[in-house]
Amino acid sequence: MADLTRWEPFRDMMTLRDAMSQLFEESMVRRSPFGAWPFGQREDASALAVDMYETEGDVMVKASLPGLKPEEVDITITGNGLEIRGETKEETEEKRGDYYYKERSFGAFQRSLTLPVEIKADEAEATFENGVLTLRLPKAEQAKAKQIRIQAK
Description:
153 residues, mainly beta, Immunoglobulin-like, four-stranded antiparallel β-sheet, three-stranded antiparallel β-sheet, 8% helix, flat
């Protein structure tokens, strides 16, 4: 015979206290370009803000890296993959009373992207201005669109 479970309507209800705790927990987590991080912890390095778009001859990638210097960022192109990695460092530590918030984080980050087309890695260019990394990745000849003319007979 099958086991029967008695229906209890209040068994699965969340208490008001649990609901309020969950609400405050979700609303108090701050977002950074590197992911959610209170207390200097980065949960999701893939949250690095990146824009990628394609022009006629290039693939353009822009990444927001506020507070970093160009020498703190490594860029690697392998096949059709692009990897941006680096490390932010806290240079000074201030002792001005008790901290309530310290939202300047530090630690390593990494973002891997799949490029939509083949590129010429040896002709890639990277510029860094006002905390924004811009990569210009020229497309390989076989990746560029070619127009074929139709001949009427």
